[in-house]
Amino acid sequence: MSSTPEHLKYTKEHEWVEKRDGGRVRVGITDHAQMQLGDIVFVENPKAGDRVEAGTRPATWSRSRRSPSCTRRSPAG
Q1: Can you tell me the distance from the alpha carbon of 65 to that of 8, in angstroms, rounded to the nearest whole number?
Q2: Among 15, 20, 27, 34, which is disulfide-ready with 11 (CB 3.0 to 4.6 Å)?
Q3: What are the Cα distances from residue 4, in Å, to 1, 57, 70?
Q4: Can you tell me the distance from the alpha carbon of 62 to that of 77, in angstroms, rounded to the nearest whole number?
């Protein structure tokens, strides 16, 4: 079972922010979000020193999409 650290700030979309020294922040997603998303294959974050406004989405990401039609099966017989 995952824990919910009290020092983090959370969004409704299961993202979190941790304040760091010097006005910096660390961001991430909850265990629940990780389980729901599966494999994340690409992440693009803001550059160091970029300003990010509250309520905006500064990063982009994509996940792998597994389709049943892509599954290989052994031929019968």
Answers
A1: 30
A2: 15
A3: 10, 22, 37
A4: 39
**Residue pointed to by tokens 């019968």:** 76
Strand segments (E) across the chain: 9-10, 15-19, 25-29, 40-44, 60-63
Quote the tokens at residue 66: 């597994």
**pLDDT tens-place string over residues 29-69:** 888 888 888 888 888 888 888 888 887 877 887 887 654 44
Burial of residue 26, with CB atoms counted within 10 A of its CB: 0-12 exposed, 13-18 middle, 19 or more buried: exposed
Type of residue found at 39: D
Evaluate whether 15 touches 8 at the Cβ level (below 8 Å).
Answer: no
CA 74 and chain centroid, separation: 35
